[in-house]
Write a structure and sequence with these properties.
Layout (H helix, E strand, L loop, with lengths): L3 E10 L2 E11 L4 E5 L6 H9 L6 E6 L2 E2 L10 E4 L11 H11 L4 H14 L15 H13 L5 E5 L7 H18 L2 E6 L2 H7 L2 E6 L2 E6 L1 H6 L4 H6 L3 E6 L2 E3 L2 E6 L2 E4 L9 E6 L3 E5 L9 E12 L4 E7 L7 E6 L8 E6 L5 E2 L1
Bound molecules: adenosine-5'-diphosphate and magnesium ion.
Amino acid sequence: MATVVTKGLKKFYGDVHALDDVSLDIEEGTLLAVIGPSGSGKTTLLRSIAGFVKLDAGKIYLDGEDITHVPPEKRNISMFFQNYALWPHMTVYNNIAYGLRLRKYNKNEIAEKIRWVLQLLDIEGLEDRKPSQLSGGQQQRIALARAIVVEPKVLLLDEPLSNLDAKIRLRIRFEIKALQQKLRLTTLYVTHDQEEALSIADKVAIMHNGKILQIGDPQEIYTKPATLFVADFVGTNNVIEKKGYVRDGVKFVNLGKLVLQAPPNVDVNKVNIVFRADEVEIERRNEEIPGYDYRFDGTISGKLYMGFKFRYEVTVDDENKDIKVIVNSDKDFSIGDKIGVFLKKDKVFIF
Ligand SMILES: Nc1ncnc2c1ncn2[C@@H]1O[C@H](COP(=O)(O)OP(=O)(O)O)[C@@H](O)[C@H]1O
Ligand SMILES: [Mg+2]
């Protein structure tokens, strides 16, 4: 258990700002998920905290102590890499024992710790196998065991589930969360999957071009995205860019016949209307749905069956250019149906 603080981290690779003034404060025993598209600097951030990157600027503190220049093996931080790279020629036992041997534990201590971690992760009985004799999920657990057996102060996980199929991914997600809570491990969890991040994290940070754009608890990130990028990145979204207009000093933008007021700071020539496919409702054209603040009309122009609901492409009516939006609904409509799309005020973001 430990706190991790970074202040103004910078790392340049030529013209690329892999880290551009990254300051973070991770509370003891909490899980911070870092999300962002490929190339946003997530791995560089983790590698910096682990001690594998020579920073151009900034400081890293572990429990208040400046560790910026402490070599990786002296940081007591475990990093779990994107492709978990178990040593193929070594047995499971030796893979897990590796870090313990480096730390000069004796044979009995090593055996004791390995027994503890195998039990913790429910992978007893695999000790003598080679990685090639394990399923993807088992390999993942062994790699996790290897990272936590040394009882690190901080655990860094770089896209730990990206190599697994969807079902196992969901199960191991629960396991990592349970383990992290049980051991109260201070954890940084990098993923490009926003749903994974929201579900597992105490706090979520969103990275783009080496910068942290927003950091907050998952609900806050989901319900109050600070920027267009965050709003677009989190959730299945419709982002509609339109020209707005000013009337009596107030900015507006239209979607079909719907008139939306835009915040004063938007560029009126380039207004973005953002709402999630799951946060709208649709109904036949002549019907109303109580409790919604806005409506615009549209025509169903595409339909996908998703099992638990339908996903529709809706072409917005009363626009001179084709504007298509995606809406999810359990109501069964057909292509060509004229419908109303209903929205709630606090579920529509305008940037
Ligand atoms: N060792 C390196 N040499 C040159 N460029 C690098 C190196 N490591 C990362 N970069 C660049 O820094 C940026 C951030 O990379 P990375 O941290 O791996 O992003 P992410 O993990 O979010 O995909 C990318 O543009 C990447 O190409
Ligand atoms: Mg990466």
